Amino acid sequence: VKVAGRRSLWKVAPGDAERLSGFEVGDWVKLRSSIGTRPGYDWHSVSKESYAVVHSVPDSGYLELASCFRKGRWMTHYMDVEKVPCLKVGQHVKFRSGISEPRWGWRDARPDSRGIIVGVGADGEVKVFFPGLAGPWRADPADLERVELFEVGEWVRIKEDVLEPKSGWKSLRPGSIGIVQGIAYETADLTSVNVHVGFCGEQERWVGLPCELERVDALKIGQRVRVKQCIKQPRFGWSGRNYSSVETVSAIDADGKLRIHAPAGSKMWMLDPAEVEGVEEEELCIGDWVRVKASVSSPTYHWGEVTHESIGVIHRMEDDGDMWVAFCFLERLWICKSWETEKVRAFKVGDKVKVKSSVVTPRWGWGMETYASRGEIVGVDANGKLHIKFQWREGRLWMGDPADIELDQGTGP
To answer: What sequence ranges are listed for the domain Mind bomb SH3 repeat (predicted)?
Structure first.
């Protein structure tokens, strides 16, 4: 079982564990659509469209619910309900299509009215501002549905099929990526909306229509990225990198401009978010075998005796990315950033190995061995040092640096 705050998995017998409801206080729920005419606990003729809010979660597997359509609270089994998205202050809403009348009547609102949520009660009751109406309008959330609008801070992209945006192209093009800076309304009834977007390289906010934009996944600090193959020349140049360079985002400006991590003394590289793609990398763990990536020219904490060919074992990791690695030729742990290394296959007892043909002299000398020698690993130290028994040799084992050794593909996996 993966437990929050622990790097290693936790072993537990099936009989010692029980399934949790998965619900938390404050969750919004409604009756499952698969439930028959009557749930396990009586909802007192509440319809399946009605929303309720989880008030408490007892250990019994039942939930205590509260709602705006009835007084008091009641119990239901967690298997009878399902989560629904909750409405939040600031969201734009309209009346649900097909509604004949809201729970508490129309009260000067109209079926086509649009408003903004200005309050949400603990029982789910919603207060809505409708243009032209005096004071907040009381509503049952089941009578409303959200109007999908972009929110400030969301990452958006100009759609590929846009021929001519409302505000023109300027230096932009289809596929340009930016961050929403604001929402503006052209009419008092909230029906005409403009989206203000900050684009990388633009001095002023770009103003467009919602139909001209689409959401994209936001890039994050610490994420690994590289330049797309379709980009001939990045907006801010290559800065000594190339298409194979995988870099780490160290900062993001309000307009989406990416600032790439650079070793001390080096100039920070900047990128347009539309020019990059995320790189999914296997998460490193303590005990993994690693080496410095070929794209890293100078590690954050310098090389020391380590090189690109050196192979070590992770002994310690911190949340800020600092990582301590043991190498068989160093007395102390070597510190680096986790994103500066890549995982390699660990040598194991039983592996059939030989000395690499590219090695001039093994770290601790040849002894009686040659490039033609074939051996088997019989021991592996915590720092990666290999204990190898070569064929036809008796006596002391041969000690090897994992950077000098490779699998003998002719005799084993």
So the answer is: 23-144, 150-276, 285-335, 347-404
